[in-house]
């Protein structure tokens, strides 16, 4: 597709400003940390050379970005422009269509928020077990429905565009879109009714989670056909931090805070494990409380790291016993809490980043 003059100007400015030596060093710092060659207590990487932009763009409103592939690319590349002038930010972008990407593929109604909120779209829950049975009977949906078509079209645009910019193509990473995790997708589709069905008809819940997991895998397979995966390490972005992780997948597990440890093992572990195994391991993210099931997280094959928020809601000693003490990284952790707790017995074993 033909890009706007504004987007082309931004791309050209970024291409000129990328310094290969600086970016190689920054990536090396992360590689050393992730592959256990970091000997400090708290990992805090820094880009050694900053580059101020010569092209200035106002922040893009998310509602505008999701309306146009050109504007989505410009919005994401604005983050790259900012990152080049920031000590810690990664040169990484995504197809930024919110948390409802996979639920929209299943047919959930897309909800675009009012402009005054400037926040990502999501989807409305189906909220009806009979309708969920219809989804189950239909099997894996057409991956190009809902936001699926936008995600793949944006990936194609990035791949095509970056070929004209060698340094962007090499150093700007396109990480997989936010398609949450199987449990989160199930709640996004089903709503609170899912939790009742865990008691009333657990086999039905397992069938739904299995379908979602297979669809999730098929979606990422299609994504990686366009954007080849790096099996060594990959960047990712959260609302408050930028990180790299070993493996190719980052699973978001926010809905798990609502489950007992027993239900987490029954309704989350099998499906997360299938995806971790299929895609060569990765990182688990959760918001809120996770100390009640962190031991189960630590036992899953292929969990190389966790990314969490709200340490004040967690028994952090239990979190650390099941992560850094076992060689599992804690990524993009709260700096104040990291400093506060670093005197714990054994410290962080060189496995915590801020």
Please describe the topology of this protein.
Elements: H1 5-17, H2 20-34, E1 42-43, H3 62-65, H4 69-83, E2 92-93, H5 101-105, E3 110-111, E4 122-123, H6 129-138, H7 148-162, H8 166-171, E5 173-174, H9 182-190, H10 193-200, H11 202-226, E6 233-237, E7 242-246, E8 249-252, H12 261-267, H13 269-278, E9 282-286, H14 294-299, E10 303-308, H15 316-321, E11 329-330, H16 335-341, E12 352-353
Parallel strand pairs: 1-12, 2-5, 8-9, 9-10, 10-11
Antiparallel strand pairs: 3-4, 6-7
Helix pairs in contact: 1-4, 6-11, 7-11, 9-11, 10-11, 11-13
Biggest sheet features: 4 strands, parallel
The helix count comes to: 16
| Number of DSSP E strands | 12
CA radius of gyration is: 20 Å
Query: What average pLDDT do the residues reach?
Result: 96
Report strand %: 5-15%
Derived structural class: alpha/beta
N-end to C-end Cα span = 39 Å
Q: Low-confidence parts lasting 5 or more residues at pLDDT below 50?
A: none
Which strand order do you get reading across the main beta sheet? 8-9-10-11
Listing every helix as H and every strand as E from the N terminus to the C terminus, the arrangement reads HHEHHEHEEHHHEHHHEEEHHEHEHEHE
Q: Could you estimate the helical fraction of the residues in percent?
A: 40-55%
The dominant shape is globular
